[in-house]
Amino acid sequence: QKEVEQNSGPLSVPEGAIASLNCTYSDRGSQSFFWYRQYSGKSPELIMSIYSNGDKEDGRFTAQLNKASQYVSLLIRDSQPSDSATYLCADQRGNSGYALNFGKGTSLLVTP
Amino acid sequence: DAGITQSPRHKVTETGTPVTLRCHQTENHRYMYWYRQDPGHGLRLIHYSYGVKDTDKGEVSDGYSVSRSKTEDFLLTLESATSSQTSVYFCAISESSFRTEAFFGQGTRLTVV
How far is Cα A2 from Cα B110, in angstroms, rounded to an integer? Predict the structure, then answer.
């Protein structure tokens, strides 16, 4: 089973700071990567997708992909208490109906 | 929000009974998935469907079966529920293949006693 690994945290950052969430993957053939946010008791919601090496920005969020290092990250600028949640990293499997293969998630706590 | 509805939202059932969870979508997406989420394990794929009557197993399919007779409905059946199947079950949909995001339903919390 190809793995997606995340530090479980919790990662604690003060309000207004940059939160940096990291993810590594073992399948060198993976081409598509996704970040989801999940609040406690809720379903995962998509934040960003990234397919090419480099950075992709969307508002306060920046996803970074380095395929040579098999590394994906998510930066959250100007972190807010409402960003406190679990962040799930996923790659995409080609052999299971293109299902997403998730890491176990990193818990983020933004303190006022 | 993607039009995905899971039912029921909560269920308590007894060991040995069959249970069916329903996922209904209004997006006409081709791919549908069932995941379970457990502490310490994250989201794990149970079964998936790539079209009407086209289904296949995921990594944790033992004890589960699925059916998809219409594009919009994907049913997950626990043939004889066990306590190890106590979990939160999520349905997800995706429009096509690579480089397309998946969108999740609200989840079903199932407790087997």
Answer: 28
- Listed residue (A103, A98, A104) closest to A26, CA to CA: A103
Closest CA to A39 of B45, B106, B93, B22: B106
A20-37 burial: b if 16+ Cβ within 10 Å, else e? ebbbbbebeebebbbbbb
Contact of A31 with chain B, judged by CB distance below 8 Å, is answered with yes
Q: Which of B43, B56, B107 sits opposite A97 (nearest CB)?
A: B56
For residue range A4-51, what is the model confidence (pLDDT) as tens digits? 999 988 999 999 999 999 999 999 888 899 999 999 999 999 999 999
How many A-B residue pairs are in contact by the CB < 8 A criterion? 63
Q: How far is A48 from A70, CA to CA, in rounded Å?
A: 17
